[in-house]
């Protein structure tokens, strides 16, 4: 009969995969290096597999280790989600408490959510909010997050989703850039300018390119895959680029260019795993974020 393998062995295994050494894993988990070594050796023995080989740079993961890593990571995500869920159910004498993990894109997470999180902490000081910047829907299904802001229509049945509206993306430039360069009036003019945009093709970029095939990667002579970096490059006057219409007002006012040519819309959803529907903490955070994001989206028409 196979023995039950303690979760600690898998946790140590994941730490070694992340750090590449027993010493690094020990520091990460606040255990001793010999303990980390015993955990790995015991897991190898229990599974009948060699998970690591020694190299000059540390421990090298074998094919067997790589094959089981995602399964072990799913276990860790589930364990973390159980801890967050347990903490968030019920009430506390001094008010709502628990841990809620929120996932959002880089732009939404840095430009839009901070004041909403500040509001949540003011109203519910005993709530702990963890903000993760990610565009992956899998973070919800794998329990890496409790709530997510997403720009694609959710299709997974395990998710509770609320449509918040549509965020418009437009071409913008700063006043400092336009003071040095005449604003383009047509597509030919546009391509004489410095364009700020993407480097690697993502699902969002593919979606945009279907509508605007002229805006291929080669057209952008300032490229970065960070949406925040793109926005700040536009604000700094590096060139013309795409940004959310709502973000063109502050802190650096941007001028929208050629709206008749380029107007791209992103359906925006707030999503939560259905297992959390009875969590008071998650429901409270979900409702506050939904109201705040809907208010943000409505600013486009102001």
UniProtKB/TrEMBL annotation:
<dbReference type="InterPro" id="IPR036388">
    <property type="entry name" value="WH-like_DNA-bd_sf"/>
</dbReference>
<protein>
    <submittedName>
        <fullName>LysR family transcriptional regulator</fullName>
    </submittedName>
</protein>
<keyword id="KW-0805">Transcription regulation</keyword>
<dbReference type="InterPro" id="IPR036390">
    <property type="entry name" value="WH_DNA-bd_sf"/>
</dbReference>
<dbReference type="GO" id="GO:0003700">
    <property type="term" value="F:DNA-binding transcription factor activity"/>
</dbReference>
<keyword id="KW-0804">Transcription</keyword>
<comment type="similarity">
    <text>Belongs to the LysR transcriptional regulatory family.</text>
</comment>
<dbReference type="InterPro" id="IPR000847">
    <property type="entry name" value="LysR_HTH_N"/>
</dbReference>
<feature type="domain" description="HTH lysR-type">
    <location>
        <begin position="5"/>
        <end position="62"/>
    </location>
</feature>
<keyword id="KW-0238">DNA-binding</keyword>
<dbReference type="InterPro" id="IPR005119">
    <property type="entry name" value="LysR_subst-bd"/>
</dbReference>
<dbReference type="Pfam" id="PF03466">
    <property type="entry name" value="LysR_substrate"/>
</dbReference>
<dbReference type="GO" id="GO:0006351">
    <property type="term" value="P:DNA-templated transcription"/>
</dbReference>
<dbReference type="GO" id="GO:0043565">
    <property type="term" value="F:sequence-specific DNA binding"/>
</dbReference>
<dbReference type="Pfam" id="PF00126">
    <property type="entry name" value="HTH_1"/>
</dbReference>
<dbReference type="InterPro" id="IPR058163">
    <property type="entry name" value="LysR-type_TF_proteobact-type"/>
</dbReference>
């Amino acid at each position: 009969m196979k023995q039950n393998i303690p979760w600690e062995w898998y946790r140590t295994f994941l730490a070694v995969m992340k750090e590449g050494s027993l010493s690094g894993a020990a520091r990460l988990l606040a255990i001793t290096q010999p303990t980390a070594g015993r955990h790995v050796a015991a897991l190898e023995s229990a599974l009948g597999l060699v998970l690591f080989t020694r190299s000059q740079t540390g421990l090298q993961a074998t094919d067997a280790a790589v094959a089981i890593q995602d399964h072990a990571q799913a276990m860790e995500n589930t364990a973390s989600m159980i801890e967050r869920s347990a903490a968030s159910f019920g009430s506390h004498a001094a008010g709502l408490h628990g841990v809620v993990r929120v996932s959002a894109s880089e732009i939404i997470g840095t430009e839009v959510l901070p004041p909403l999180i500040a509001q949540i902490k003011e109203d519910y000081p005993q709530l702990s909010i963890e903000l993760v910047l990610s565009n992956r829907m899998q973070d919800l299904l794998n329990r890496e997050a409790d709530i997510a802001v997403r720009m694609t229509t959710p299709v997974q049945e395990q998710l509770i989703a609320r449509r918040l509206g549509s965020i418009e993306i437009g071409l913008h430039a700063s006043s400092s850039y336009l003071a040095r360069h005449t604003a383009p009036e047509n597509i030919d003019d546009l391509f004489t300018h410095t364009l700020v945009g993407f480097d690697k093709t993502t699902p969002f970029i593919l979606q945009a390119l279907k509508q605007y095939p002229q805006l291929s990667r080669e057209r952008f002579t300032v490229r970065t895959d960070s949406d925040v970096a793109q926005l700040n490059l536009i604000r700094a006057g590096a060139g013309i680029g795409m940004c959310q219409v709502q973000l063109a007002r502050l802190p650096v006012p941007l001028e929208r260019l050629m709206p008749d040519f380029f107007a791209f819309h992103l359906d925006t959803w707030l999503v939560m795993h259905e297992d959390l529907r009875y969590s008071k903490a998650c429901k409270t955070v979900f409702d506050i974020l939904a109201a705040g994001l809907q208010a943000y989206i409505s600013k486009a028409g102001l």
